[in-house]
Each structure stands twice: as C-alpha cells, then as structure tokens.
Prior knowledge:
Elements: H1 2-34, H2 36-50, E1 55-56, E2 60-63, E3 71-81, E4 90-101, H3 103-109, E5 112-128, E6 155-173, E7 178-190, E8 197-213, E9 216-233, E10 238-248, E11 251-262, E12 265-278, H4 279-283, H5 291-296, E13 298-314, E14 322-335, E15 343-354, E16 363-372, E17 378-386, E18 390-402, H6 403-410, E19 415-432, E20 440-454, E21 461-472, E22 481-491, E23 494-503, E24 509-519, H7 520-526, E25 537-547, H8 548-552, E26 562-572, E27 581-591, E28 594-604, E29 607-616, H9 618-623, E30 629-637, E31 640-641, H10 658-666, E32 680-693, E33 696-708, E34 711-721, E35 724-736, E36 739-752, H11 753-759, H12 761-766, E37 773-787, E38 799-811, H13 815-824, E39 837-844, E40 847-854, E41 861-869, E42 874-882, E43 888-896, E44 901-905, E45 913-914, E46 917-919, E47 924-927, E48 930-931, H14 937-964
Parallel strand pairs: 5-6, 30-32, 31-32
Antiparallel strand pairs: 1-3, 2-3, 3-4, 4-5, 6-7, 7-8, 8-9, 9-10, 10-11, 11-12, 12-13, 13-14, 14-15, 15-16, 16-17, 17-18, 18-19, 19-20, 20-21, 21-22, 22-23, 23-24, 24-25, 25-26, 26-27, 27-28, 28-29, 29-30, 32-33, 33-34, 34-35, 35-36, 36-37, 37-38, 38-39, 39-40, 40-41, 41-42, 42-43, 43-44, ...
Keywords: Membrane, Transmembrane, Transmembrane helix
InterPro entries: AsmA-related (IPR052894)
Region (Disordered): 925-965
Amino acid sequence: MIAGNITTVVLKILKWLGITMASILFLMFIIPILFPGTISQQVKIFANKHLAGELDYKKTHLTFFRHFPSLTVSVDDFLLKGSKPFEQDTLLAAKEVAVGINLKNLIFDQEIKIDEIYVNDATANVFVNSKGQANYNVYVSKPSEKPKDTTEAGASIKLDLIKLKNWNIKYNDHTANVLVNAKGLNYTGKGGLSEDIFDLETDLDIDKVDFALNRIWYAQQKTLHADLITRINTNALTFVLRKNELRINELPLKFTGFVSILKDGYNLNINAASEKTTIKDMLSVLPPQYLSWVKDTKIEGNSDLFFSLKGRFSEPKNQKPDLKASLKVGNGFVSNSNAPVPMNNLNMDLNIDLPSLDTNKLLLDLRNLSFDLGKNNKFRAVVRTQGMDEMKINANIKGGIDLTTLDSALGLKDIELKGLMNTDIQSNGIFSLDKKLFPKTKGYLNLKNGWLKTKYYPNAIQNINILANIYNTDGTFKSLGVKLDPFKFDFEGNPVFVNADLQNFEDLLYKVRAKGVLNIGRIYQVFKKEGFDVSGLIMADLSLNGRQSYATTGQYSRLDNRGNLILKNIKATTEYLPKSFFIKEGNFEFENEKMWFRKFFATYGKSDFALNGYLLNTINYFIERKGTLHGRFHLKSNYILIDEFMALKEGDNKDKSLAVEYAKEENPKSSGVVIVPKNLDVSLEANAKKVEFKGLGLNNLVGLASVNKGEVYLKNTTFDIIGSRMGIDARYQNESPITANYDVALKVDNFDVQRAYKEIDMVREMATAAKDVKGIVSLDYKLKGDFDANMKPIYPSLEGGGNVNLRDVEVKNLKMLSAVGNDIGANAFNNPDMKGVDIKTNIKNNLIHVAPFTFKVSVLRPSISGTSSFNGLLDFRIRVGLPPGGWIGFPVVVTGTHEKPKIKIFSKTGQGILEALYNTKSNKVIREEKRDEKKSRAQQRKDKRAQKKKAENAEKQVIKDVKEK
C-alpha cells in the first residue's frame, strides 16, 4: 500500500516535470515565432537611432540555443563602419553579434530590454588620426535637455553581461603615438553596466599583444591575463581599480588607483607593482626572439618592479601626469652549461622620475649595476642623469670583462664574442650643447683582440682593437678631448683602421686618418635586420687635419684635408623618400674646405643623375649641432620622374619618418607631395633631357636650380613643352607630407591652344573656353597657390594674373558669344576676329577677373569685361559697338554658366558671384563660390570693384615675391 502511494507520487512528479520541461521547450520554440517581427524591428530602430556609423549584416536569428539559456537576437557577418571622417573604414567586423533579451519584459510588457551582449570572431580597428579625430564615435546619445519620448516603441539597454570571444584588435592613436595589436582576445564583463555606479568584474585573456610607443616596440607577442574588479561611476566618468591582477607572460602585476575622464582629458592615479618575483619572470616580457634563451638558461634571483602615473592629462591646458618607476634586481645568477663560470652577484637598482612627462626633467638614477664573471671579471656602474637639453651627469663605470666568458655564461646562441674589454670612466657635471658644457671627465675604453660573429654570416669581424680616451678638466667644450688610437679591425681579408685626435670642441682641432676597404653589404649581414637591404663597397684613404675656425673664417690655406673616398653600388635611404637611392659610383676627393664629386652616378627608381661639383665645409656639417650642407654642382640626367619622389608613394624604403607613416595611414589613396630637406644649401646647373610630372613631359630642361632651407627655386629655367619653349622662375616648399605651396612666373610664345587643352589638365580646368579656340597664343603669367595631398593644384588657393596674347587664333562657336549673336541677330559672333587681342586677367578665390578687351565681329566692335569662376559661373558685361568705329553701342549682360549662358540685351544689371573662401593654414576650402544674392546695380559695381582690387593686389604681391626670390 505504502509502496503504491510512493509510486503514484513519483509518477505525478515525473509527469509534472515532463509537462514543465515540455512547456519550457515549447516556449523556447514558440517565443521566437511569436515575437520575431517586434524584436527585429525594435532592434533596428534602436541601431538606426543611436549609431552614426553605417551598419550592415546578413542573417538574423531569434533563439534560445546559441547562448543558452538566454533568448538572443543574433546577426551573422556583422559590419560596422566608423564615424566621420572614417565612414568608409571598418570599425568592427564580426562573425556573430548577439544581444540577450530580458524575457520577463518581453512577455508581460512587450518591451525589449537588452541585458547581455555577445560578440564572436571579431576584428576591430580603432583609429585616432593626427588631428585627434576618432573613428569610434558611432554611438549617438539623446540630448539630456530633451524630455523622454514615452510614446515611441524601441529597445533599451540595461547590461549585466558582455562576452567577447576570439577578437583581434588594433588600436592606432597618432596623437599619442601609441600602437597596440591584440590577437586572440577573450573577455567577460559582468555587472550592472547600465547603473550609475556599478562594479565591473572582468576576466581577460589575450594570446598575443604588441605595444609600441613612437613606433618603438616595447612588447611583442606577449600573453596577457587579467582578473579585475573596477568600480565605474558613469555620472563622474570615473574608474576605480579595486581588484586588478594582471599577468604578462610569467610576470604578475597588481594595479590600484583610479582614472577619471574629463572634458579636456583625463585625471589619473595609477600604481602598479610586481613584488617578490624572480628575474626569470621579469625576463619573460623580453621580445620573443630572446625567450628561447631565457628558457634554456639557468637564471636565479629576485626582482621588484614599481610603476606610477599620477596627475592630469589635458592637451588644451598643456597638463601631463607624473611618471615614476623603479626596478630592483638582487642576488642574480645566470649560467649556461657550457660556461666555465656563471654570471654571479647580478644586482641592479634603477629609478626613473619623469615629472609632467617632460623629458627635460627626466631623472635616471642607476644606483647600482654590478656582476661578476670570475676573479678578474667584475663590472660596476653607478649613473645618475637629470634633464635632457641640459643634463646633469654623475657617472662611475668600471670593469674588466673577458667577452668569451660573458658570451658562454649567458649562453648566447645568435652571437659569438671574444676579446678583453676594460673600461674606467668617471664623469661629473653638466652636458649642454647650447651652452657648450661638458662634465668633468676622465676615462677610457680598451678592447683587445675582439671578435664578433653572428648566425647571419659565416665569417667574423676579427682583430677588433679599440683604445678610446676621453678627458675634460674644467666642464666646458674647450677642454674636451677625445683620442681614438687605434680603432682597427679585419673583415673578409681587408684591414680597416682609424686614428683620431680631437681637441677643443669649442673650436675643434682635429687630426683624423682613415684607411681601408669595407664591404658594407657583407658586414651588414653580420647584423642583419629583417626588411632592410644594404649592399656596396666603401674604399677610404683620408687624412683630415685642421681647425674648425679655419674654414668658417676663410683660412683655407691652413687646412690640410686630402684623400679619396670611393663608393660603389651603395644603397641609401632617407626617411622622407619612398624609394632607395642607388649610388653606382661615387668618387670623392677631399681638398681642404671642399669635398669634390669627381664621379657620381646614381639612380632613384626610373630617374638617373650624374653630379659634378663640390660640397663646402662638410666637416663643419658633422660638427655643428644643426649643420647645413653647402655646395655647387652640375647635374645631368636623361630622365627624372617627379612622381617617384612624392612622400606617400609605394617603395622599398621601410624606414620612414613618423610624419610620413601617419600621413600614409590617414591618406591611403594619396601620393603625398615631395619633401625637401631643410639642411641643404645647394645650387645646381641642371641639364635634363626629360622631366616628367603627372604625365606631362618637359623636354630639354636647362636652368639654375637651388635648394635652401627646405625650399626649391628655379631661375632662368627653360624647357620644351607641347612643341613650345617655356621660360620659368619658380619656388616650391612642402609644409607637411600632404601639403605644399608654390609660386611661379612663366612665359611662353607660340603656344598651341588645342594641344595644350588636350595634354595639360590645368589648362582644361582653368580655361574651359580653350576647347573652342584654335591657333597660337603667347602667355605671360604669374601664380601662387597650394598643392593638395595628390600634388594637384587647389584652385581656390590660386592668386595672381597676367596676360594672354591671342597671336593667331580662330574662335568658333564659343557658346557665350554664339548666344549673344543669336539674341541680337548677328551670326558673325560664331566666328569673331580675335587675332592679336591681349586679354589681361587676375585670379583670386576661384574667380577670374577679365579686364576690358575689344575685338571685331564683322562691322561690330564688341568689348568684354567681367568675372568667371573655375566652376563655370559667368558675370560678364559686353558693349556692342556699332559702326562707324564703335563709338555708339548698346550693353549686353551675360550670366549663367559656360555651358548655359543667359543673355540680357540693353541691360547693365548682371548677377555677381560670391567668391570662394579658402583657409591657407589648413589648406581647406571653407566655401565654394556661388551666385550672389540680387543687389542694386550700384552695390554690384561696388562689390565687383572690391573683388577685382583684391585680385589685382594679389597679382602684384605674386610679382613682388617672384622678383625677391
């Protein structure tokens, strides 16, 4: 009986459990069917309302099973583009993005409450350009002053969970010069994320993370784990680090403090520490190429690391936080199985203080760096420096090391060292280039029978012997002396030696002897670096003897500089050019103050150069802090392609300046402009058979060119262009990798109008009426303006003017004149006689002002004056002079455009053109020209006179600038 009752109860329980489970499963299937339209529509409403970036995805799903037990709306192949001005760039791409829906609100309130977010297999590109514009500002919040719209259906967010799986993130901030690459990122964040104040629990793992500052990699391919609890106050935008445990590879770090986001920056108080760890854990954060060495080497000892960042960061107020760091290493022991003795008693105590992140206040305090390599191999260093431009130095470095013992003790695999190195340097005082101060110093470095071999090249650099002495007795440049006697080595059977005796750096007294043959292609392979390629041969036999002031005061006879330097097949790069120069042969002869280029043949891409001439005072250039190279050359070339020199073009040069790299990233489709070095003062007598620029060929170029302080000048230069000989004076200067300015004065006779219209872009864009003109003209014109990021003229920047002489032309079916002829019944306007007519024009703010000129149309004598724009707007006055002699006439006004002119006979009332506005600092067009509002005739005449006067003044200024330069 009792057993039967128990069975009945169990069966009932199982029955209800089955019904419950079936109901739950039924609901899990039916709810997505009942609500799909509501959910999909409201999520789209929310996205379109709150996202500024373009959103796209393929499929949508409403299911319990993707992220069980949550009901989620999922989208596949999610794509979100950035905010302005990055609308075409991908901010986030993910295989799946899902949002969890609060089931209670959905069923009972018909409301969509999003409380969970899942993003899987995603790639994020976060970018801040050099102007501070960020691509991630895609969320558009409602203005707080507006009342809530309670009548409109939509979704809301009250997050409790964020889960990111398998993310790859690239963070590139050009304003802070920070680059972070994170691969294999998995993140879980829990907490009431929609509350005003909440605790965010974070679990973060990254398989590989790279970090660079100023394009210097401080961490590469590091694993990272973080277990964090952060209190977030959304009202004050403050993040308080409550529990923050971080592990980079094997190195544990603990963080405390807070971060507050202000209107103009941040307020920071961050403290980090890695205490009572081992040296091996510390070394685990080294670059990946050294980790195998760490793994295979016995390393013992303790280490402590401390770091703090405290203060405000605000660009507008020029405020930056204080940084402090310290590293302590104690009782270190490093040994390899092949070492006769280990590195023992390794100790380090380093402290860094950087107030306001100002390098001129940087304090580096190396209180101790010491280690032993056996009885007679001990090294000790104590160094303290403060400041940068004016640096206080107190250093004591002493030690004798057998490099063979050091090499084997460390178990280095990629490099083999030999030789005995001794050093003893004591230095105390101030170092300042501006004030010519140098700390009191006495010391030497002596390396005997050195040997260096790497895995990259089979042969070693042998017999390396260096004896360098440095001394300073009174703390000034005047008593500073450096003696290098000898510095010599053998490589590939070729001995190289340098002897140098340098005294009195206020007025350098130098005596240098150098001789040897160096195969830099092969020696470079000893120190091989991925992505770079160096080759060639250097042969030197030089004797340099003199004093710096002998050259600067013209006492050249007291100099004794002589010898030869020969370069062959040398590949060279500069940070401003995309390609490498290839010096096929360079034969240089030193003769007192001059370095003669006796033979110099080089190529750059498709361009070739032969130079003959000299550089002046090259020794001063290397001595002076900001020296300038002076010289005079004859240059010959068969072909020069200007396009190859544009800074953002593709090329083999991997070592470009940060400015060029950032400009390329921010303007990927632009070529940039040509960057001119600022440390050159060189004149050239140029003779080039062909110079090409953007498809325009200049043949037989002859003239004077000079480069001075970042500007290029052309004087009395002539060349053949489309069958005519053109004379030109010009100046060019780049302002950045993507902006430049220029001014030019040009003269040309016998210019074929139709050929110019067909072959020269600028003619087509500036003189659209030229398509209806045939024949020969002469041109005398002066212009100045700016180039854009593709080195094309920015037309609203143009200023200047000049004269065009219609020497022998036919003007047929010019729409403006044909329209006038049709309205007054004179078909002869279709073929006017303009031979010999001079047309004087001035240009400013995208408007061309035409001075009055008269021509013949049968027995009529029309005169034209007025304004047109580069975009085709017209505002002309025509006086049609009647026979005899045109003394009596009637007025005609032409407005409209070149393609659709509007004619008003017996009228003097036109419609003005409001000039364009151009910002010369930002190289941006603020406003394009447009039709002016209708005004009285008197006001129109007044405005037009003012516009024309501005243009005439601009032309006069251009003429003055060209003459002065």
